[in-house]
C-alpha cells in the first residue's frame, strides 16, 4: 500500500491517492479541485484508477470530481446520498451536486486491487460524512483533524453526532494512522493523548 498526498482546491484540501502497487490499481480520495494536477499524479503512480471516493459532499472535497470523471468515465464515484440533494442556493454552493455517484455508507467495503476500504459512518461534520479504513489507516475527512475536529455549524452538522463519531474513532483498537481532510496527518495514540475534542468525546 502506498499513499500519496496532494493539497488541492480553494482551501488546500488533502487529496489522497491510495495505491495497490502489486496489482497496479489506485483510488483517489477527496479530489477537492485541480483535476489536472490530480490526474497527473495518478498517471505518475503507474496505477490504473478504479474508484473515486468522497468522505463527504462539501465543495472543497468534491471540486475535482467532474474533471476526473471526464477523463475516466468508467470509474465509479462513491458518496453518501445524505450529502446530496440540495434545494437552495446556499446548500448548492456547499454541497454541489456530483454526477453519477453511487451511494455508500456503514458496512460497505470498496476494493482497490487487494486493498479493502471499509466504510464507517461518522456523521457530525455533515450528515453523510464517512471514514474509510484501509488496514491501519483511517481517511477521516473533516471528522477528525490533528489536534482538532471538523466544524459542526454547517447545515447537517451536529455537535452531538460528531462527538459520537469521535468516540467511535477513538475507541478503535491500535495506533491507527490518521489521514484527515485538512492539515497534517497524525496517529490515534497521538490524538487520544492530546486532542481535546477526542478526549472529551471518549470521556463523555
Ligand atoms: Zn467539509
Write the layout of secondary structure elements.
Layout: E1 2-8, E2 13-20, E3 25-29, H1 35-45, E4 48-53, H2 59-62, H3 65-71, E5 77-78, H4 89-94, E6 101-102, E7 109-112, E8 115-121, E9 130-134, E10 137-141, E11 144-145, E12 148-149, H5 159-170, E13 177-180, E14 186-187, H6 188-194, H7 196-203
Parallel strand pairs: 3-4, 4-5, 5-6, 10-13
Antiparallel strand pairs: 1-2, 2-3, 7-8, 8-9, 9-10, 11-12, 13-14
Helix pairs in contact: 1-3, 5-7
Zinc ion binds next to loops.
Would you write up a description of this structure?
This protein is α/β, with parallel strands linked by helices. It has one domain: Metallo-beta-lactamase, Chain A (4-Layer Sandwich), CATH 3.60.15.10. It is 27% helix and 30% strand. The chain has helices spanning 35-45, 59-62, 65-71, 89-94, 159-170, 188-194, 196-203, and strands at 2-8, 13-20, 25-29, 48-53, 77-78, 101-102, 109-112, 115-121, 130-134, 137-141, 144-145, 148-149, 177-180, 186-187. The strands form three sheets. It has a six-stranded mixed beta sheet, with helices on one face. A six-stranded mixed beta sheet has the order 7-8-9-10-13-14. Strands 11-12 form a two-stranded antiparallel sheet. Strand 13 (177-180) and strand 14 form a beta hairpin. Helix 1 crosses helix 3 and helix 5 crosses helix 7 (196-203). The longest helix is centred in the C-terminal third of the chain and has 12 residues, at 159-170. The protein is globular and about 45 Å long. It starts with a strand and ends with a helix. The mean pLDDT is 97. The site of zinc ion has 4 residues, from loops.
